[in-house]
Amino acid sequence: MDAGQPLDVRPLAAKVVGICAGEAHTLALTAEGEVYSWGRGTFGRLGTGKEEDETRPVRVSFVSGKKGQGCSNKPPRIVAVAAGAYHSLALEDDGSVWSWGYNLYGQLGVDSENSLVPIFLDEFLDLVSPRSLQNQSDSQGKAQLKIVSIMADGMMSFAIDNIGGLWMWGNCPQLSKDGDEPFSLVSIPTPRPVWFLHGRCVVKVECGNEHVVVLASPGETVYGGDLVCYAWGNNNHGQLGLGDNESRSYPEVVKSFDVDSPWSIYEIACGSFHTTVLTRRKPHSPEKDAQELRRMRLEDRASVCWTFGLGDNGQLGHGKATSSSFPEPVYGLPEDVLLKSVDCGLFHTCVASEAGEVWVWGMEKGLGLCPEATFSGEDPGDALIPLKVICNENIDSNFAAPVQVACGAAHTVVAAHDGYRMWAWGRGHSGVLGNGSTANSLVPCTVMWPPLQMDFERKEVLDRKERAKPSESEKIAGAKKGASTLEDIQDLNTKIASMERYINVLHTYILGERFEDLGLPLGPENSVADVHKAWWKMLDSADDGKLNQMKRFYQSMLSAVEEKIMKRKVHEMVRECLSSLPADMKSS
User: Fold this and answer.
1) Strand-pair partners of 123
2) CB 254, CB 260: distance < 8 Å
3) Model confidence pLDDT, tens digit, residues 226-251
């Protein structure tokens, strides 16, 4: 699909509204509520019904029918996705939660083995207020609740209900009422409310391998931006931001971001052993706070990124490879940017601004951007300060309208162009970059989006609608088409756009860049000639290895869709398009 196509004619099925990444897999959510996955398939984390890797996005099929509701042919409409290390979660628009993948610690929320396909969590079917679970006589507390947010990382899973209650399951930090018990992890096979935050309105939750960070109200009501940060769990690297390395078995407020702080928190993210917080300055800070802001050189910043925890690989962005148990600002970012999205990987961090600028830092230059590094003791190749990611050297340095960024253990994904395009970079093992290859990429490469399957399904729907028209209207439409040269040209341009789509896919897979990114003029008057020339030029310059690679890609593509349907549609399209070409081009 042409990235320059007007937004009002782009299909919502191809618009990505959310992305997330696990250890070596990626999930994408479309505006029509469908989920796509790619990358490593072990333990069933992709939800495809098998454990094979997928190098390109494939759609996740959700089992129809729920407990107490019978079977339905209507597929669930998903509104949120989350990825743990080896498992995945999805939230339906009615508050239902689905899970699939690894379940050794109960992170799927059901007492069962690993699942290769999404399974429905009936634990939330009759969800009521945690208060009613403690006091059965409280009739008001028995009001039906609904899950509105989900989150997963490591071996843990979380959900937030519509009154701000927090639920957790999986391999979670043990909570102690007295808060003086030693740190430990406990397996929770089914969702359990976090009683220690009862009465607080939880807005967002993030977690690392063994620690949890929550953004919540200081009391029972949220007042404007007065949200505070709670943290608990393992703190051996200072990832709780409490100024020490002592673990906590009880949620404790991070003093740097309490109600008296001059900062308003709006985003949090956790790596395996570090934490990132995005803040804005509160509008009316006391003079003592203003003096402190000037001392820290933060008074003129539109937003500030803070990091704390493990810093051995530069993932804190403080200019040094050391850890910090206290939140410190990342000074390597421009002062006037408004940061919009943040995520953390195993040992790297990525942020994006509203203007489409993206920065990374940490392990191996943010897992890319370091082809000259030797990765020796003197040159580990890590980025100690933020490095700007270039979207495309031939077009622009920024990404257009980023949706969000997502970090896996060793890869990063960016959704941009209003969600109609995605890029990825880092280690490409198991196809986690979604570009049809398993090779590493030091710079952003285009994810193969939308999938070919989506193109063919859309064409099938259009064909069925066309065949369902009354015979009289078909005659009228046919007469108008035969009488109108303009409609003939539009029909031909539609076929040309489809051909460009397939050429883009092949060109990306073979040469590592999109055909349209080469700067070639594509339009109604010269599109066929440019595609024709560039296609044969590419074939002439390709060696045997590239040609064999293209052959394998064709074989894989043909097996991904029903072979007979695929062949028929491709043959029909090529035959119709060739019949419309000038005679001299047919013979060339």
Assistant:
1) none
2) no
3) 789 999 999 999 999 999 999 999 99
What SS3 class is residue 90?
Answer: strand
Task: Please give the pLDDT value at position 281.
Answer: 87
Burial class (CB in 10 A: 0-12, 13-18, 19+), 413: buried
Q: What is the pTM of this model?
A: 0.76
Using only the alpha carbons of the chain, give its radius of gyration.
Answer: 26
230, containing H or E segment: strand 228-233
- The three-state DSSP-derived secondary structure of 93-105 is CCCCEEEEECCCC
Task: Please state, in angstroms and rounded to a whole number, the distance separating the CA atoms of residues 86 and 313.
Answer: 23
Report helix angle 527-541 to 485-511, nearest 10: 20
The Cα 310–Cα 321 span in angstroms is 9
Of residues 414, 406, 573, the one with CA closest to residue 22: 406
Helix (H, G, I), strand (E, B), or coil: what is residue 310?
coil
Task: Report DSSP letters for 202-224, one per residue.
Answer: EEEEEE-SSEEEEEE-SSSS--T
Q: Residue 253 has which token pair?
A: 């407020």
Query: From CA 542, how far away is CA 78, in angstroms rounded?
Result: 42
Q: Collect all residues with Cβ–Cβ distance below 8 Å to 411 and sequence separation of at least 6.
A: 21, 24, 26, 345, 367, 424, 425, 426, 427, 428, 432, 433
Q: Region 445-473: what's the mean pLDDT?
A: 66
At residue 519, the pLDDT reads 44
In this predicted model, what pLDDT tens digit does every residue of 136-177 receive, in sequence order? 544 444 557 899 999 999 999 999 999 999 999 999 999 987
Largest CA distance in the chain: 85
334 upstream amide cis, omega within 30 of 0: no
Which whole-number Å values give the CA distances from 400 to 9, 65, 352, 420, 515, in the listed order?
A: 18, 39, 11, 10, 19
User: Is the distance from CB of 401 to CB of 417 less than 8 angstroms?
Assistant: yes
The whole-angstrom separation of Cα 175 and Cα 192 is 12
Q: Which residue has the tokens 């989506």?
A: 454
User: CA-CA distances (angstroms) from residue 519 to 70, 502, 503, 507, 575?
Assistant: 53, 17, 15, 14, 28
| Residue 90 to residues 82, 84, 94, 99, 223, Cα–Cα distance (Å) | 6, 11, 12, 6, 30
pLDDT at residue 259, rounded to an integer = 87
In whole angstroms, give the CA distance from residue 551 to residue 529. 24
Structure tokens at 380: 């580990």
Would you say 322 and 310 are in contact if contact means Cβ atoms under 8 Å apart?
no
- Torsion on CA atoms 65, 66, 69, 70, rounded to nearest 10: 40
- Domain residue spans of the chain: 453-586
Q: What is the DSSP string of 336-352?
A: T--EEEEEE-SSEEEEE
Give the tokens for residue 130: 């945690």
Q: How far is CA 320 from CA 109, 270, 271, 314, 361, in A?
A: 40, 19, 18, 6, 11
Structure tokens at 239: 């990832």
